[in-house]
Amino acid sequence: MQPGQYGRVPQPTQYPQYPAQRYPQSAPPAPAAPARFPGAESGTQFPQQRPPANPPTFGDGGGPANPPPGGGGSGGGSGESGGEARKVPPRPRFLFVAFLLLVLVAVLMVQAYVQAQVATPKNVHLSGDSDQVPDSVLNGGPIIDTTHDKPYSYRLPQKTIALTFDDGPDEKWTPLVLDLLKKYDAHATFFLVGSAVTEHPDLVKRMVEEGHEVGIHSFTHPEMSEMGAWERKLQYSQTQMAIVGAAGVTTSLLRFPYSSQADAIDNVYWPIVEEAGKLGYLNVVNDTDSEDWKKEGVDKIVNKAYPSDKRYGAVSLFHDAGGNRAMTLAAIEKMLPRFRNEGYQFVTVGEGLKKSPDWNNNDGGSNFQAMQPASAGEIWRGRAMIWVVQASGWFVTGLVGLLTVVGVLTLARLVLMLVLATVHARKRRSKNFRWGPEFLEPVSVVVPAYNEKEGIAAAVRSLATSNYPMVEVIVVDDGSSDNTAEIAEGLGFANVRVVRVPNGGKPAALNIGTAWARADVIVMVDGDTIFEPDSVYELVQPFADARVGGVAGNVKVGNRQSIVARWQHIEYVIGFNLDRRMYDILQCMPTIPGAIGAFRREALRDVGGVSHETLAEDTDLTIAMGRAGWKVVYEEKARAWTEAPSTIQQLWKQRYRWSYGTMQAMWKHRKAVFESGPSGRFGRFGLVFLGIFQVGLPLFAPLIDVFALYGLVAYDAALSAAAWVGMLALQFFLAVFAFKLDKEKLGPLWSLPAQQFVYRQLMYAVMIQSVVTALTGARLRWHKLHRTGLTAPGQPS
Question: Which of 140, 164, 351, 752 is buried most deeply by CB count within 10 Å?
Answer without folding.
Answer: 164
